[in-house]
Amino acid sequence: MSSAASAAAPLTRRALLRAAFTAAVLAGTAAALAPVLRARGPRQTLTPAPLAEEETYRGRHIAVDDAGVRIDGRPLHVMRRADGSYLSGINHFQSFPTRLELARAAVDELGTAQLAFAAPHHR
Q1: Where is 26: in which H helix or E strand?
Q2: How far is the C-alpha of 23 from the C-alpha of 32, rounded, in Å?
Q3: Percent composition of the chain: helix, strand, coil (DSSP 3-state, to 5)
Q4: Virtual CA dihedral for 94, 98, 101, 107, nearest 10 degrees?
Q5: Do 69 and 63 form a contact (C-beta atoms < 8 A)?
Q6: Is it the case that residue 8 has pLDDT exceeding 70?
Q7: Structure confidence by residue, pLDDT tens digits, 54-88
Q8: Cβ neighbours of 107 (radius 10 Å)
Q9: Which pLDDT value is given to residue 41?
Q10: Is the dihedral of CA 11, 14, 18, 21 positive or negative?
Q11: Across 47-59, average pLDDT
Q12: Which of 37, 54, 66, 102 has the greatest number of beta carbons closer than 10 A?
C-alpha cells in the first residue's frame, strides 16, 4: 500500500451522511435565492432628496422636509395619525392635513415663545 492510500480516511457512513447533508443545504439555499436573484433588475440610481419646503410665517422660519419640521431651526415633534393627518405636542387636540399647516398653527400657538431643542429624558 502506498502512503497516500493509507493517509486517506476510509469512507464511513458518517462521512457519507455529512456530505449528503451539506449538498442538500447548498441546493436548498440555491433554490431559495434563485427567484430573488432572478427578479433583481438593474441597480436604481439615487435621486436627490427633495428640497425642504421653507417659508417665513409671522416672522418665524418654518422648514419641512423628510427629516421633520423645524421652527426657527428647532425641531417640532410631529405625529402622523391613522387618517393621514398630522398633530403635534403644541396643539394635540387638532389635526392638520399637511405638516406645513401644522407648523403654521404651532407658530400661531407659540406666539413669541421658542421651542425647546430637546425634551429632557426621565430616568
Answers
A1: helix 13-39
A2: 14
A3: 35, 20, 45
A4: 70
A5: yes
A6: no
A7: 999 999 999 999 888 999 999 999 999 999 999 99
A8: 20
A9: 62
A10: positive
A11: 78
A12: 102
